[in-house]
Amino acid sequence: MSIALAVSRAEQWVFLCLDKSGSMSGARLEAAKQGAIKILETLQDGDMLCIFTFNQGVQQVVETVEINRLSKIALLLAIASIEAGEVVDLGLSC
Question: Going by DSSP bridges, is the β-strand pair 48-54/13-19 parallel, antiparallel, or unpaired?
Fold first, then answer.
């Protein structure tokens, strides 16, 4: 006799905050962005993600968005566009 248990996965809410101060330029910022991408890759449809950056203040790069195939593409582009030292309002809402 075989008994199978169904285990459901809880929806994930992730808030990423990346340091983009001048000291993060170059390899440090690229490593942080690669880490953010790795986290994004672990998220599944229905999970939620929000991205913030900070240097002299905090900027919301992406409002809280539900993960799906299309939003992952937009989020990858948003992460790629982050540059050290700049204060840029990307106005992204997925």
Answer: parallel
